[in-house]
Amino acid sequence: MIRVFALLLVLVLGGCQSEEYPIPILGSTYRIDKDEPAKGSEIRIDVLTGWSECVNAKIEEVDLCMPQVDRGAGEVRLAFDLRDPTTGTTLYRSLDREQISVSHDTSLQEDYELIPHDPVTAGQLFILLIDGSGSMYDNDSVRAKKVYQALLTKSVVSGFFPEDNAKTGVVLLRFSGPDVVGLDGKAPRVIKSAADYQRIIKQNLLVPTGGYTYLYQAIRYSVTELLTIKDIDDFMAVRSAEPTLIVLTDGFNNEMGKDVCGDNVPRLNETLDLIREARRGVGASRRTSVYTVGLGKPLPRKRSKQRQPDRFKKSITTTELCGKYADYKIDGGLEDHGIDDVSLEWIAEAGGGSSFVKQEPRGLAEVFQKAAAARYRWYELRYKVPDSFYHRTSFDVKLRLLNIARAETSVAIHPSAWMDAPSGYRERGERWTRMTSFRSTAALFMPIFGFLVLLTFVGPAWFNARRAIFRRAKPRKK
Amino acid sequence: MNIYLIPYTLARHGVVSLITAGTALLAWWVTLFFVVVVGPVAHSSGLYWNQSCEGAWLLGNIAFSIAFMSVFAEGSLRRRPMHYRFGYALFGGFLTWLMTLSAFGLWYLVSPYLGSSEMRPILSDGSLVTLRYKLVPWACAGVASGIGPFIARILHEVIARRFGFGADSLAAEQTPTWGDWGMQFAYHAAGGFVAGTLCAAVWHSFGFYSLLAGDLYLAPALGAFTWGFLHGLLVWAIPDDMYAGWVRVLSAERFGLRIPVPHPDGSPSERFLGHFPRGLDMYLPAEQGVAELHASFVVDEDDNYAVRGLSIQPTIVKRFLERIDLRYDVRRPAPLETDLKMEDRILMGPNQETEVEFLMLPKEER
Q1: How far is B202 from chain A (nearest CA, A)?
Q2: Which of A221, A370, A470, B228 could covalently link to B24 via disulfide, CB atoms 3.0 to 4.6 Å apart?
């Protein structure tokens, strides 16, 4: 008997899980492991793996925050927020579907949805860095007028100054030659009201300036020295505002008349290094996100994959930046044929933002709106694999931010090899299934059980009925 | 379960199946409840189990419940004393559970080495859903669910017959031979194997094919049902020794009068019908066409029943699409006889004035 109990004890202890992870996914037989951020992630994508993590993140919609899985539908739902990898503070970012990639094991998913939750009214500081070189005012200031029109669009103004958020401000800058000043020609300052913003633009934007395009230098200034100006520093400190730099240009970086495209390579690399360093050196909440907007048409160049910014590549080469135009003069040459969209892409990539090339005011307005989009505290990610076959082994879900920052996290999910909780159901017209309560198992279990009990009585009942019908249960008449 | 509620018809073979199928379904539900509802609570309390254990529990619990119910059902039908009824059922169930878990653990250790080295990480994954590498645990659990009850039954038989502990009030009269036990073992092992294997097939089909279900919710439920049903059907059916043959009068005169055919100790016997007023087992009036010694009902040592026509008066056995004339032929040295089946009617007299029937009734009726 002692041996039997000893054997039982060994069986029980052998089956115990000594670590906290993997933890059960509520309402399912799946388990989820702790998320593991990739090395070198600038921002931590923190996958909320369970009830305690959702509660610790102070999320009220705990039901939506918890992981959910459905093998039959091939669906996985995960919630995540973004955090500073060093301090662990939550970062509020505006993410959309195009800014994140989802992999199921190594397979990149296409059928997914990103649902933002809890819009936040945290402070934001928008820094608009506008090209004031002579080309902006050519042809009766046609390009400057487009910018003017876009910046005064109602939706853009309300994006910069939302009615429900008094914590936002705008710094309007113009660079012409090596100088970067406020749009009104004064020292840079924070504009805190929509009325002031509109007035300054109306009064100053169309006033022509000139000079060479010190684009890279202006950007370097905007991500470093500008933020140390007392007025701006105080604004960010008091309102917990995160800076977003929106660079608007219509040409190439061109510091001298004899500059050729190849001259920009070391300058751009210096700028990229500085942006990366500036973003790495401070807490994630004070990292400047850089959006670049090219006003015009891209320089017609043969583009290949290698020309796209590589997220983990440090420097750009002459071939990558200029292609066959390395020795072509910029002033009166390349800039007449298009804008340097390649360097804008690299700068945006290094700055964790996006790059756009637009020609019309409406397109510009969309870009400004995007840069000023609402930020959210946490996100819910839902994706669906094409077949439940992909839920028949443990799998890794890998989330990767695109453009915003170098950030990647993977989390392992372990389905049960033997059984599942009740399958989810889908309302008509709905894309995703809803979880079925465990109570619904009674709907399956009880009728079958009842039917079995009924069947045990059917035998004798039928026997007796048959005997009654065939007159064996009562005497025949004589 | 009550033998009174199980008439001697073909349906009796399915009664134990229904009970074991229902119990297996209950075991699946309890296991699922434990994993889905209790699991998170246990985890938050710091007591949690490895995911690999859940398969062992599912198989172990279903096998235990089936084995338990198979022995318990027999105990109930044989009117075994309650503590012996539970005791042997728990013993059989526990043996089954232990064998299932041992087989599962052994397979869990061995199976990763059955594939190539590249396959090893996949085969070691506790979440791998595959019939190829899960069939063996299902089949082993099936065999265990047969062998556990077999050992419990043989143990009960030995103890009851040798020492008299826990003897059934409706036990079989004859002591089983080694041959009988061999047959019983074959039924138990093979029946359990077939049940466990078909359960795996159902589990796989409903889990694999999206047209059926495509997930593992219905799959193990229906698998458990199949396992329990087939186990009840193949492993232990209600034996004939629990019933006894009776002759019952159907005609108006003396309607309902009935006599058992076998002796109370189960030994072979012959019961006589006629109008002779003394010494016969059943008196039937001569006015109803019954001869002085008209017919007899016979049972041999193997519980085979037959009826013999002893008179030159008409004696006809009637059953569906069949009429057998048993009138005594003076040219033959012995009377004509025929095997009897449940609810056969025997008509006597020139105008078939008297009618009796043959019935198999639970021995408790006596």
Answers
A1: 12
A2: B228
